[in-house]
């Protein structure tokens, strides 16, 4: 009898333990999928990526989004059952995603510490970059579009071409097909340094730029002045100056971290020291 009582008691305790381990959707847990919880915070995060019309039934939409989360949990569970989360590819991708998330969060933290520029900085930026503001133009272009050769260095053969016809002949010699057409460039959306180079070209001189995996050779055939209105210009300049400060602060943090870091490379994977020195020299010259 004592043995039977002990067995019954053990079974009762085991049953209580199993029951206690079972998860139930309550409080901040909105659903449980084969033991995997979906929290209210997880559902809210998923909702932030959904465009919600003013007339939408939010409760209905929330339930639909939750079902998508449930389906994703089921697919993830299947992937884990097949051991995909143990593969080197998964581990590498997981680390990459985690690092990118941390980089993004640090960027947001840095952004919170960089104030908007003052009027003096805004005015100076507008003065330093006239092609984006008061001197903004639409460049009307004749163009030739062609595929990139397998060896991009072959494009150097086009450097002595001084007209679109000469570009076309050079492209044909490279065995590349091309098409001719018209185009427009807004200097307000172009890097001011690149705009300065283009504006220094002699009349009719072509310039070649990459475009969506191809190349486009262009010649300016007309210009339309499109100055940016002052209020818009000042707002745009403020954003550009702040972005520049954010980039500078981010680079400074990386430089400080690198200066105190212990970094070791396997032979053959060391960085190109000459390239590093050239980059550092360029940064110093830009200051």
Question: Summarize this, please?
Answer:
The chain is 53% helix and 16% strand. The chain has 287 residues and is of the alpha+beta class. Among the domains are: 23-85, no CATH class; 137-225, no CATH class.
Characteristic key phrases:
single chain, 287 residues, 4-stranded antiparallel β-sheet, two-stranded antiparallel ribbon, 53% helix, disordered N terminus
Task: Explain this structure.
The chain has 287 residues and is of the alpha+beta class. Among the domains are: 23-85, no CATH class; 137-225, no CATH class. The protein has helices at 2-21, 40-47, 58-81, 88-113, 119-128, 164-173, 192-199, 230-260, 273-286, and strands at residues 29-33, 36-39, 137-147, 178-186, 207-211, 214-225. The strands form two sheets. A four-stranded antiparallel β-sheet has the order 4-3-6-5. A two-stranded antiparallel ribbon has the order 1-2. α5 (119-128) packs across α8. The longest helix has 31 residues, at 230-260.
What portion of residues is helical? 40-55%
User: Which structural category fits the helices and strands?
Assistant: alpha+beta
Average the pLDDT over all residues and give the rounded result.
Answer: 86
Number of helices: 9
Largest beta sheet, briefly? 4 strands, antiparallel
Question: Could you tell me the radius of gyration in angstroms?
Answer: 30 Å
Largest sheet, spatial ordering of strands: 4-3-6-5
């Amino acid at each position: 009898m004592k043995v039977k009582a002990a067995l019954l008691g053990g079974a009762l305790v085991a049953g209580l333990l199993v029951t206690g381990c079972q998860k139930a959707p309550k409080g901040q847990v909105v659903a449980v999928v084969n033991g995997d919880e979906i929290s209210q915070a997880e559902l809210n995060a998923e909702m932030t990526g959904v465009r919600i019309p003013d007339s939408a039934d939010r409760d209905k939409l929330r339930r639909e989004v939750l079902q998508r989360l449930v389906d994703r949990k089921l697919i993830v569970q299947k992937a884990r059952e097949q051991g995909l989360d143990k593969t080197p590819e998964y581990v590498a991708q997981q680390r990459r995603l985690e690092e990118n998330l941390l980089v993004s969060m640090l960027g947001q933290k840095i952004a919170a510490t960089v104030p908007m520029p003052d009027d003096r900085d805004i005015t100076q930026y507008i003065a330093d970059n006239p092609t984006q503001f008061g001197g903004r133009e639409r460049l009307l272009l004749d163009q030739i579009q062609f595929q990139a050769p397998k060896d991009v260095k072959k494009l150097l053969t086009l450097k002595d071409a001084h007209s679109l016809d000469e570009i076309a002949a050079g492209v044909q010699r490279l065995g590349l097909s091309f098409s001719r057409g018209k185009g427009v460039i807004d200097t307000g959306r172009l890097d001011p340094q690149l705009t300065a180079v283009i504006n220094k070209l002699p009349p009719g001189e072509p310039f070649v730029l990459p475009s969506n995996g191809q190349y486009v050779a262009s010649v300016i055939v007309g210009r339309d002045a499109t100055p940016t209105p002052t209020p818009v210009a000042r707002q745009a300049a403020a954003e550009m100056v702040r972005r520049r400060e954010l980039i500078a602060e981010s680079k400074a943090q990386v430089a400080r971290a690198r200066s105190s870091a212990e970094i070791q490379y396997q032979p053959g994977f060391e960085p190109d020291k000459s390239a590093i020195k050239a980059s550092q020299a360029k940064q110093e010259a830009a200051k």
